[in-house]
# Entry
Amino acid sequence: MLYYSFSYLVEIQPTTMTSQQKDNCLLLSIIANISFSNTIKLHNNLLLFLLFIIGISNTYSQELPTINGQYAAIPLEEVLIDIEKQTDFEFFFIESWISGVIITKTFDNENINSALQSIFENTSLNFYIEKTSNRIVLLENTIVYDELPNSFFGLEETEQENVVIEQKTNIPPPTFYNTTNQNKQEYNIAKVGKSDPNNLQETYLLSGKAINSKTGDPIQDLAIRVKGTNQITVTDVTGNYKLELPAGYNELSLRAMGIAATDREVIMFNNGSLDLLMEEGLQQLDEVVVEADAFKNVEESITGSEQIDSEESKNIPLVLGERDILSVAKALPGISSAGEGAMGLNVRGGKTDQNLVLLDDAVIYNPQHFFGIFQALNPFTTKGVDIYKGAIPVEFGGRISSVFDIRTKNGNVEKFSGEGSIGPVTANLALEIPLEKEKSSLVVGGRGAYADWILRSLDDEALSNSNASFFDGILKYHNKINEKNEVKATAYYSRDAFSITSDSLYNYDNRLFSVRWDHRMNEKTNSALIVDNSNYGFGIDFDGETNTDFNLDYSINETELKYKIRTSLNDMHTLDYGASAKYYSVNPGSIKPDGEDSDISTLLIDEEQAVEGAIFIGDEITLNDKLSVNLGVRYAFFASLGEATQRTYEEGMPKNESTVQDTITYSSNENIKTYGGPEARVSARYLFTPDFSVKASLNNSYQFLHTLSNNTTVSPIDTWKLSDLNIEAQKGYQASLGFYKNFKENEYELSIEGYYKKMENVLDFKTGANLFLNENVETQILQGDGKAYGVEFLLKKKSGNLNGWLSYTYSRSLYRFDSEFSEERINNGEFFPSNFDKPHDVSVITNYRFTKRYSISANFVYQTGRPITYPVGTFRFNNADFVAFSDRNEFRIPDFYRLDLGLNIEGNHKKNKLAHSFVTISVYNVLGRNNPYSVFFVTDDGEVKALQSSIFSIPIPSITYNFKF
# Structure
């Protein structure tokens, strides 16, 4: 038996020869080993078509022999040797092609041609029988061509020297490629499919799965682009992909966040599969880049979505050197807060309670510490956040403005590792502990503050006995049970305690846990079962000089069960559907005397309870390469339940003590009032080019919870109230339209998006309202209409020594409370600016890298001053002086602007170090701008004086040491 490794390099000179002469010349050059002038290079096996030409005149003149044999799990090599013994034929092949191939076949006087077809049917091998020389040549993937295409030598001729050349446009040309380039690639050329002479096509379907070579996990959102074309696809949540490629040679570019950029060469001989085993990529730690898939911002069909990785906050100079993804979010268009140090975020003109904030699927009611100055999330355990401010996915509901879907990291399953920081106010630590190698892990994170020294060092005697502290801890368990099942469990707790005066201690805490079971039903369907519980509460301990000591508390608790399924029906339809159920329990507040001498009477407000449910289904429809549509519908249901006592009031009259009509008592779990209805989620994307698209969306939603606060901005002692007989559910409607463009190979991203939002039954409060510990709080509440509209501009530079982004938002947020009764009417029933209406908002985030270890960063913010109500005069009544105020929010405080600078220094990059370090030296409010947080008025000797309070009115330097091991 002979083995040949075919690696011929043939060079020929095309002249004015006929096609037949050129073929003969090519044949002679191979047989005689003649080298002509340097023009065309052809690869190995395909040149075997010469065997067809040799003896072409008598190829079919001989009868083929038959073979006999019973082969039971016999190596292919032994089968071929046996056939050689039975016939006069010899086989020619490369030994590696048949290594490990086992054959189980039986032949009884079988023609050798059909026998070989049976033997090779489940392999990548074809064969060619050359009868005149009794040779059988094996070929991997390829087939022997009996003619070359007409354009092979660069001549578009149909007739030459009276020889008619028949056109065969349905047969693709042979595949040729240059072997000298293979050493430049990390991977060998992949050959997919097996050529079938009876089914030659111009394109074939390539499918497969992208897999992390280290963890074995599927890689989602891997962008697969065919170089030299606009053709691109993205892997789904299970890592699967499908891509139609031209027959022959193709070069693929593979890109994903956290994965090493890779190029793959693929030769398509037929339909087939290719799994992409990808290596993890090292991320530049000193980049300020909103990293995403190369075309994701252009290609996805939903509007108004943002994605922030926790690493992005690393180089942004924030107050006291703290990393804070929620502060990074405020630098994006359409997201702001009422002021520096204000708790909560306002998204597209919505109130802070209109945002659904999730931590690993569970609601976190107050994700901030110390009046919003710090986030209540450990930056080293937080992976990132997906923000939906326009088209909200169909699985989310219960809020009318936005969703913040915060995710924690999965632990390292290979080795023990950790990360932490030490700053002037806080210290953070996160540990990743493998429990079972390559299978399960535990993440433990903790952080605490030691801010008391700052308050005590201020030149203010009133603050000398003040204290402020907080801590939070998180625990996450992750277990990849097998390829089809994965379990994640998260537990979280945070607590704040502060005393700005000597007689009151305030405290508030968050507690949550969630368990999630991800199950892969089959190649097309995945499901997730989620159980979670959240609790938020606050308390005030008052210890004064008089006999009025008391303890006050409030809490809200919710438990949810959710089941969702995602099914890829085909290339056109992907379904998301499921259901959720939630139970609420609210302690509206209680006050008790602290000590036997206290004169405070005990007061307990009746508990509230309710259930909320939803079913949902959505279809992501890919109509063609340019147009995709996301259609969804969600039916939301809410029921307020007893045991409770509710008042009814005279219809058409204001709610007050004089209009009470009846008092109704409801027994335990008796239905008090139901709200709900269908919610539409519609969005579409049209792709003009691979890097330019237009998107539009329309959606509506219900909200059944409300915050009660008559402060100018949200505070940690605001209470949540369930909808009931007298407080209706809020409704929101939003339409948006946006244009998205990438430049310079996706180095730059540009987006312009406009929106219009309408709101119903939004809450506000009567002047001087008493909200807390009020058994009939509906008498203090007004419900009216709201509207918000704006245009958002965002320009990002994602790579290079200089990177960052510029965002600008023009927006308005207006409310209207109208009634025929003056006590329920504000500003004569006209629309007026909300407390957080700030038409102009500019943010600039930049980072410049000098070297791999040194970079500087800057953060600039400008905002229109927020609205305020000013006194416009005084009057005297019954020998007393009174102040007359303007219409609500008629004036504005001074505009806000601030510049922060930071210097980032990385430790050396030696591989074998105990820990890698990163130092941030920053100055917050470099310009020393005395930005007012609020303006208030006092009367001094009959004169009204305006005073302003500021949070940070001087530059605040800080240095933070970060380490990772």
The chain has three domains: 19-164, 179-278, 296-964. Residues 1-61, 155-169, 180-184, 285-292 have pLDDT under 50 and may be disordered. The radius of gyration is 36 Å. The chain has eight helices and 59 strands.
